[in-house]
Amino acid sequence: MSIHTPGNELEASSVIREAAARGTQLHVLGAGTKAAIGRPVDAENGISSRALSGITLYEPAELVISARSGTPVSEVVKTLAAKGQELPFEPMDYRALLGAQDEPTIGAVAAMNLSGPRRIMAGAARDSLIGVRFVNGQGEVVKSGGRVMKNVTGLDLVKLMAGSWGTLGFLTEVTFKVLPKHERMSTLLLRGLDDKRAIQALSEALGSPYDITGAAHLPAPDLQGARTLIRLEGFSVSVDYRLGELRRLLKRFGTGDILEGRGAEAIWQSVRDVTVMPDRAERAIWRVSTAPTRGPDFTAWLSKSIDAQWFYDWGGGLIWIATPLVADFGAAAMREATKVFGGHATLVRAPAEARSQLAVFEPLSDAVMTLTRGIKASFDPAGILNPGRMYAGV
């Protein structure tokens, strides 16, 4: 495959316009660290944002940063940290899970709507994304949003591009709202809870006024090894007060331990990047979103059909599930479980052959699929951008 690496927006427009005229399909890439997610793209050529790098605007007082889409996430994080700021939504890093080596790009964060444990407090990446520039499937440069958050009428292109996986346009620049970095992080660790009691504890914590920024449960074959994590961030005095109140609120679940420092940071990073999953290298990986209170029933029902391992994030609303690398990788049971308990499941990691044959993303209803096809046709009439990445024929 020949991969184009345009150095500016005009070059990107030219590449895409020529491809559309010829009907040449393009695999849309950043650095390629997440190319193994989704259905394999059957394209003759690719277009990468690698050469579109650099921060174009940073105004710490306004809490806003803009960067070209190929800018490494690490560069954005470092720039923000120098001013005591951060991306609110704590984007996950898929490299360990997918075995990738290159630097993830900020454009991919927007294109895939990547969000980590702090999503329960700060919202998803799309909630902080306030501006985009992209080239659509006709080679037209489109700008939407800007440096401030505002209400819009009609089609919100910023939110539409977030999570579109490169199927609607080639992102060239993104603008995010940022927040001050927290002074202190502290985690309340409860031990020995089964899934249902753990989710009850997390739900009570999240329903409290104590501003929880992380809520995860890590089951274990031996129940005594199960860990339930509740994170608080903010000014030190505030964290101390909220920890005390939280312990009183959750005293029937155990007194709990307090984790701080590098050890606490490491465990939340392992939750964010799914490296906490045991035996993950030998299994397919699914990402399931469902109602938090239904999570334990979802996994209990699923485990009756397949050999599954899992852990919970987002208070139980996000479940990472590992299934054996055999047969359909648990797809039939997973789809049935989402019908029974609600939610949607995405096959994040599996061999390319399996991803080409299975529904990687949750199947859409006929009405939603019709709408999806219509939106794709309006942005990319020739169907050249990441064809079939999310759904066959789209």
From TrEMBL:
Domain FAD-binding PCMH-type: 1-181
Enzyme class per UniProt: oxidoreductase
Pfam family, one: FAD_binding_4
Coiled-coil segments: none
The organism's taxonomic lineage, starting at the top: Bacteria, Pseudomonadati, Pseudomonadota, Alphaproteobacteria, Hyphomicrobiales
Source organism of the structure: Microvirga terricola
Highest taxon of the lineage: Bacteria
Enzyme Commission number(s) from the entry: 1.1.99.14
Keyword flag DNA-binding: no
Family annotation (NCBIfam families): PRK11282.1 (NF008439)
Protein name: Glycolate oxidase subunit GlcE
Key words, A-Z: FAD, Flavoprotein, Oxidoreductase
Cross-referenced InterPro entries: FAD-bd_PCMH, FAD-bd_PCMH-like_sf, FAD-bd_PCMH_sub2, FAD-linked_Oxase-like_C, Oxid_FAD_bind_N, Vanillyl_alc_oxidase_C-sub2
Keyword Oxidoreductase in record: yes
Gene: glcE
An example molecular function term from Gene Ontology annotations: glycolate dehydrogenase activity
